[in-house]
Amino acid sequence: MNGNRLLTVNNLSVSYVMKKDAIKAVDNINFHIDKKEILALVGESGSGKSTTAKALMRLVNQPGRIDSGEIIFLDQDLLKLKEKDMSKVRGKEIGMIFQNPLDSLNPVYKVGAQVAEAITLDKIPRQEAFKKVIDIFNDIKISDAGVRVESYPHELSGGMRQRVMIGMMISRSPKLIIADEPTTALDVTIQAQILELMKNLRDEYETSILVITHDFGIVAEVADRVGVMYAGEIVEIGDVFTIFENPEHPYTGLLIKSLPRITKKEGRLQVIEGNVANLADLPEGCRFSDRCPFVMEICHKENPRMTERAPGHFCACHRKVK
Amino acid sequence: MNKSNLFKEFIRNKTFMLGFVIFLSIILLAAFADNIAPFSYDEMNVQNKLLSPNEKYRFGTDQYGRDILSRVIHGSRIALKVGLIVVAIETVIGVSLGLVAGYYGGKLERMVLFFTDLTWSLPPIIMALAIVTMLGPSLNNVIIAIAVVSWAQFTRVVRVKTQAIKSLPYIEAARAFGENDLNIMARYILPNVLSSIIVLSTLALPTAILSTTSLGFLGLGSQPPDPDWGLILKEGIAFINQAPWISIFPGLAIVYTVLGFNLLGEGLRDIMDPRLKA
Amino acid sequence: MNDMIEYIVKRLFAGIFVILAVTALLFGIMQLMPGDAIQLVSSPRVPAERIAELRAIWGLDKPVYIQYFYWISRIMQGDFGTSIVSGQKVLTLVMERLPYTLMLTGGALLVQYIVAIPLGLIAANRKNSFLDHSIVAFTIGFWSIPPFWLGILLMIIFGVWLKVLPISGYSGFKSVILPLMTISLPGLAGVLRLTRSDVLEVLREKHVETAYAKGMNKSSVLVRHVLRNALIPVSVMFFLNLPWTIGGSVVIETVFAWPGIGPLLWKSITSQDFPVVQGIVFIIAILTVVSNILGDIVAAFLDPRVRQELKGEVI
Fold it and tell me: What total of structural domains would you count in chain C?
């Protein structure tokens, strides 16, 4: 077992059961996260990335259900744990930051109390817990921590709320934090600050982060490694620099090209043809075949398997770039 | 939502279908009461008084020998008529006031709100009692009383929705074109609140029937010998020991009717405007 | 805090205004009815001069608004008028009977909430289970039952057939049971529905997920993040339901010959004993306004977002 390995996901599948059909939102994916690294999972909506995040925390609610696979965190398979043991893992070992912080905080309690509530789960007495909350707020640069602690969620700005969420989830010093679209609802300057904060967490607190996003720009900013998801599968995964320089999968290439770049003199914004994959109606063979600019005969017949193109760089595509 | 899809939604909703079947049965009962009921509602046969349910008198007889079954069947006419009229009145008043209040705002809105609050200043039953006291006991006055007490729910919902719609660009465009206010309210705003109104009206029916039978029960509505279900119930109390069926059956009729309309309304709401829940 | 007090005072004033308006309206229309109290109480043989005399004594010869003014000023002094029929002070009559009504109303509300809240929580938690479907069916069913008929039915079953419970009047603890059940059951259905749908609503909210993600276990999440939030509208409804329950009690009391305000009101209406009717209506109006204000206060107390809105409104 790799001493540096934090999380290994093997053959994870998650479906949503609607009336009579089951739609596979996540189909047999494999990936890992090491200690002190930031992995980004990127893809369009419907690609399965959010579902994956929830599955890691076992927070998949009906009508969703985890069909199969292993989620090995340190040396435990999370999927085999009883619920009460899993709740010990949540917050303490793995934390999660959600997309829209206004709805994600309870409007009825002060934010300080909500963060302290997490801390007290570690049997720390309330007084001490509150002090710790103020320390955390200061660490993550929430100004006027003493005042903010007594505020209600609706009294804070979006960026502030997101910091509170982060504070809440790092308060028990988890080894892994899952950030589901952490900056989508925020404006650009705040976004930069939050991303900076995440890099800090990795470097100073040695926390690993799984960032779920649809924005390749964020990937470029903050990720060490990146996995690209399409229609419930991971189609490419590897080191972020390698992938940016040499994307193997056509979808990855298109995602990168569609990033608006100020340096380019002119040229139209690259667009990916076609619509987001409909999970209920997938094409035969490779799922990307109906939108792929490099599509070949075999793509319509066989769904390509993941192969290692370079150390640590995996891709599932029939086309081999040399 | 096109028409055929809507139709299918209705059929698929079990609550709605059950309610609709019951609703239909009541309408048929009321329409053909004369043909269905074995006797007329005031046919007295004193030697057959206070008989328990049997072959000839399925629901038994009362103290005057009148057939309870027939009285109940004829009573459906009163119940249905009253319920529909009450709801019609409260809908028209409530919606108009709501439209006016939401559209014009300002003083007009405050006035409307004041009067609407007034109808809420007493619990509905007490208010209705007070109104009937003032006007005198009769079925018509009961109708007025219940309508007055109930229009507030329409005003509230319609006002809020009107305010929301009023600020939309196409309304401003209409005004710029010189369309008069009445036109705007009728042709643009009303259709948009229609689904909520339909749901509220349907759900107001069972309440109306419950309230009017309550007042009938207190003797403040229809007067004898009308076969008002509440009235029959009241008359039955005196004979509760010897002939409990006099009070039991009209009550069952009320439950059947109210339940049916409730189911109808619930089903309608699920399909047309789920946000009205709560 | 100051904002809250300002808001409460504002509402109180508005409430008083509404009470005055309602009672004025009722008062005025009652006086406009043909014939008046004096005529009703006196027999036809009383000479016309005597009637005029009585009218003057009772102040009935003055214009309506003056009469109303007198009436209000008397109320301020605690004199709610005198019953035409019995000659007793209205206040006395009402006070004799109010405790019995409150007994039923208070008891009913207590029963409703104590039973409905846990049941609603369970039902929402196990949505679409057999238990949940049964509970929903129960609520729709009982909500369709006219309370007065339920009372009669219970009377028949427990009083006539089984003969275990008394069916009229007050004769000790046992006689409370039937009227209490009659009032509680339909109301219970309503509260149960509300609780269930509130909890369902809250369960859908994202902060519940956050609570789980923090590492809290199911029961802590349910109590601290679900129930606490869902109880806000439920608690407010408690106060808003109070006047409604009193109204319902009025009808049920007449069914069971319960010595509360109900039969008094009904008798006064049918005998056109206006002072009593006016007095009772006035008292109930006050109770209604106070309940509504209490409902608002509770909402502000429990929900910081409402407090925020209030701040805006007060300014």
Answer: 2
